């Protein structure tokens, strides 16, 4: 059975004054897909997710949720999705339980069903023991998990997440990623994730759109995006003893980096890659060496990101991640 189109953007454009925040963005996301939107700060990710969920009207174009326009048919569209904004929308004075029950009431879920669903979600996100705690007493990671739980209270078909692991510790980030993967794989929930964490996008997403300066500059699977990078192949080779790389091997390499006395990275032109492996074997045999390992290092998603957004934007992201919070304003 053919899958339905869960999310569709058609020439979505949003201007603030004369400046485009997003411009002529078009794509489709099928149901059960884990779709990622990757881009540096200021690329337009949050604006786009707000348009897709009906919180912001586009200047041009339209967004559809299972065929429903969230601006013209808000009830039909919103019952299909849950939204996890970058900034928590929980009530800090209310307990974790009260927040979930209150959200369920807003969706008109009957009492028995909403209480059962709240317990399920508290257990799923490891929050059952803290259900009576006011939100203000929870850690940042717990609040984030509770925000996701609240977005799932009405069993939506789509889950939108805007930077869900931003600023979280490693343990909390991993728990959220594992839970999202499980919801998608076992629960069939369509996930739309915006992030600037390259590793997170690579790990989770079936397809990725790279957004830069408000435009989608590339869209494909992570593997296809990485395969699209043109350039030298990197082959890492290690021997059982120290060695000097020269002769035939050196002639096929555009660059050689010595990592250790017995370990090297060989940068090889794509057309020469098939020839380099037998040469490595012959090189070792002629010098009485044994090859301990040969690894072909594939291009990374980080290289794709740099290609489409520039080195400066990547460095800005890293600086933003390590700068103390008080310096960020």
Account of the 3D structure:
The chain has 13 helices and 13 strands. The chain has 329 residues and is of the alpha/beta class. A 6-stranded mixed β-sheet has the order 5-6-7-3-8-9, with helices on both faces. The chain has a 4-stranded antiparallel β-sheet with strand order 11-12-10-13. A 3-stranded antiparallel β-sheet has the order 2-1-4, covered by helices on one side. Helix 3 packs across helix 4 and helix 3 runs parallel beside helix 5. The protein is elongated, with a radius of gyration of 24 Å.
Largest sheet: 6 strands, mixed
Q: What string, H for helix and E for strand, traces the elements in order?
A: EEEHEHEHHHEHEHEEHEHEEHEHHH
Q: What is the share of helical residues?
A: 25-40%
Which structural class is indicated by helix and strand composition? alpha/beta
Number of strands: 13
- Gyration radius (Cα, Å) is 24 Å
The unreliable regions are 322-329
> In what range is the share of β-strand residues?
25-35%
Shape: elongated
- The number of helical segments is 13
Task: Walk me through the topology.
Layout: E1 5-16, E2 19-30, E3 34-38, H1 45-52, E4 60-65, H2 74-78, E5 81-84, H3 96-106, H4 111-124, H5 140-151, E6 158-162, H6 170-185, E7 190-195, H7 198-204, E8 207-212, E9 215-220, H8 222-227, E10 233-239, H9 248-251, E11 253-260, E12 263-268, H10 273-286, E13 291-297, H11 301-309, H12 311-322, H13 325-328
Parallel strand pairs: 3-7, 3-8, 5-6, 6-7
Antiparallel strand pairs: 1-2, 1-4, 8-9, 10-12, 10-13, 11-12
Helix pairs in contact: 3-4, 3-5, 11-12
């Amino acid at each position: 059975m053919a899958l339905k189109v869960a999310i569709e953007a058609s020439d979505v454009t949003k201007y603030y004054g004369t400046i485009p925040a997003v411009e002529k963005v078009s794509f489709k996301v099928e149901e059960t897909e884990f779709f990622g939107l990757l881009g540096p700060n200021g690329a337009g990710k949050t604006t786009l997710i707000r348009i897709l969920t009906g919180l912001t009207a586009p200047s041009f174009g339209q967004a559809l949720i299972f065929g429903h326009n969230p601006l013209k048919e808000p009830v039909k569209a919103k019952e299909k999705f849950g939204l996890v904004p970058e900034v928590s929308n929980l009530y800090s004075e209310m307990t974790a339980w009260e927040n979930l029950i209150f959200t369920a009431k807003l969706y008109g879920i009957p009492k028995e069903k909403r209480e059962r669903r709240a317990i399920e979600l508290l257990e799923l996100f490891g929050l059952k023991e803290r259900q009576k705690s006011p939100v203000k007493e929870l850690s940042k990671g717990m609040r984030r998990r509770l925000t996701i739980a609240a977005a799932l209270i009405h069993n939506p078909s789509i889950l939108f997440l805007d930077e869900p692991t931003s600023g979280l510790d490693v343990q909390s980030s991993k728990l959220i990623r594992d839970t999202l993967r499980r919801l998608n794989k076992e629960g069939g929930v369509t996930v739309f994730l915006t992030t600037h964490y390259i590793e997170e996008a690579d790990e989770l997403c079936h397809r990725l759109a790279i957004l830069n300066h408000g435009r989608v500059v590339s869209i494909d699977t992570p593997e296809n995006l990485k395969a699209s990078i043109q350039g030298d192949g990197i082959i890492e080779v290690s021997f059982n003893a120290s060695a000097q790389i020269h002769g035939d091997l050196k002639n096929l390499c555009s660059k050689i980096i010595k990592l250790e006395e017995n370990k090297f990275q060989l940068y090889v032109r794509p057309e020469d890659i098939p020839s380099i492996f037998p040469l490595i074997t012959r090189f070792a045999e002629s010098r009485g060496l044994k090859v301990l390992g040969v690894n072909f290092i594939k291009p990374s998603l980080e290289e794709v990101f740099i290609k489409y957004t520039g080195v400066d934007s990547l460095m800005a992201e890293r600086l933003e991640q390590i700068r103390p919070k008080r310096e960020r304003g």
